[in-house]
Amino acid sequence: MNTADPEPSMEPLAVPGLLEALGSTEEAAAVPPRQHQHQTPQRTPAQKKLLAAATEHGVQLLLMPSGMARREANTSSAGGKHAAIHWRIEFEFPGSSVEVESIGGGGGAAERHRVVVDRACHDLSWLSLLAPRLAKAGAVARHQLRRYCNAIEKCGGGGGGGPGEAIHQEGEGSLSPKEDGNRDAGFRLLLKQEPGPANAPLFYELSPTQSIKRSLAGKTIIEFPTVLVVLADELSRFSLVPPLVTELEVTESSVDPESKKNGGVAVAVLP
User: Is the overall model pTM greater than 0.85, yes or no?
Assistant: First the structure.
């Protein structure tokens, strides 16, 4: 007599701890993920003073987190009666590079030549900082930078750039023809616009004889200024920030009667 096979048991397999584990997993899934709260970085008194001075002079200064190379290299400081800023400034020469040995004795990597100025008072001009340091550079460096040295020497290598001596550049944008007294010098000073796309950067053109304070007003700086020294035949490789305002020469004879009603102020609408 054939007996029917017993039906399989439908009871769940008892695995010690399984239900407890599943229960804890479900509970964890039901808990929404923590929202990362923005934490204000802790600033030292010196950093707070530097940020406050930059704001006072119209500079949006961004400081990177501790441990970043640019943050650790920044020696800029602020203080004194008029909140004077003493900047760390790096001048780079895109058309000249120097080979830097890699760790382990492998092939070296080419890096741009760089001239570093620590604690440069913002009342000085760019040219007054750069020219004497190139003049005192070693023979090898001067040979490698000879085209830049020649162009800067032709410019006179002076320009104290004090508060009353600077060529003023108001607002953002590149130099207008009247503001740039160094068009024939054979070199340009460029400052990268921040923030901006890495694959299509724009650059401000700075007047070499203008004070650092006036040049940086209205601009964003990450830690400290890095200024490119560019020869005239290299300028086409860089896209410049267009001027926002075109300065017009207005004489008494060129002011029409309607503008005289407004105090002799001629208003020009730019395309």
Answer: no
